[in-house]
Amino acid sequence: MKFSLLVLAAPYSDQSVGTALRFAQTLLQQGHEIFRVFFYHNGVYASNALSTAPQDEANIPRQWQQLAQDHNIDMVSCIASALKRGVLDESEAQRYDQPCHNLIAGFELSGLGQLVEASAQSDRVVSFGA
Amino acid sequence: MSSLHIVNKSPLSHSCLDECLSCCQQGDELLLIEDGVLALSSLKPQQLDKLNALGLQPYVLAADVAARGLSTRLLPPFQSCDDTGFVDLCVKHPKSISWF
């Protein structure tokens, strides 16, 4: 079955991000498929490449990145949520004349249309709220 | 079309569970996750009545129950559900509604 996930919670603040990650890993192990993970509101902090955890703690952005790489999953952060929270890709950094960009590789910034498309294309959408 | 209701907030600090119960229909199921599992120690009689009236099966996510030391409070009507069970519930019901 084809799933999409909506993640609204911030890593290191809310438990939901961890629940969503475990849920994603479990459903892939069961042979299901993930069409897209859409990060919205504070969820976009999971796409900050500069997020730095101590060595003995989980680096949540890296865990999502690894999951995306291993299973070729489309990871999208809401562009409006991300820009306001200081998560920019290269082209947005240029557009707004910012000195650097920090969107983690494997993610892309896009609009809510991607969430709508994900609900249309997937059998199930599961939300993980803050 | 049945729904899976997912509640992740404690009934002691949020009204999510009450709001959820007011919208549930027969055939739906309820999954308590994260702080939602605190309902194991704080479910009010009227909430239990509502569950029974709807014939609603409440599940609690096993990892969250263990993390909060509530395993000994896991009594009927609540049933434990592991991560695999969480996915299975989402497969079983055409829609899932998250209350947070």
From TrEMBL, chain A:
Q: Which InterPro entries match?
A: DsrEFH-like, Sulphur_relay_DsrE/F-like, Sulphur_relay_TusD/DsrE
Q: Name one Pfam family in it.
A: DsrE
A single GO molecular-function term is:
sulfur carrier activity
Gene Ontology terms describing biological process: tRNA wobble position uridine thiolation
Q: Where in the cell is it found?
A: Cytoplasm
The source's superkingdom equals Bacteria
Q: Which Gene3D superfamilies match?
A: DsrEFH-like (3.40.1260.10)
Keyword list, A-Z: Cytoplasm, Transferase
Cellular compartments per GO CC: sulfurtransferase complex
User: EC number(s) per UniProt?
Assistant: 2.8.1.-
PANTHER family per the record? PROTEIN YCHN (PTHR34874), SULFURTRANSFERASE TUSD (PTHR34874:SF3)
Similarity remark? Belongs to the DsrE/TusD family.
Name of the molecule in the record: Sulfurtransferase complex subunit TusD
Species assigned in the record: Dasania phycosphaerae
UniProtKB/TrEMBL annotation, chain B:
One cellular-component annotation, GO: sulfurtransferase complex
- Which GO biological process entries does UniProt record here? tRNA wobble position uridine thiolation
The record's section on SUPFAM superfamilies has: DsrEFH-like
Please, which domain of life does this record's source organism belong to? Bacteria
Q: Which InterPro entries match?
A: DsrEFH-like (IPR027396), Sulphur_relay_TusB/DsrH (IPR007215)
| A Pfam entry, by short name | DsrH
The identity of this protein, by name, is Sulfurtransferase complex subunit TusB
Q: What is the lineage of its organism?
A: Bacteria, Pseudomonadati, Pseudomonadota, Gammaproteobacteria, Cellvibrionales
Gene name, per UniProt, is tusB
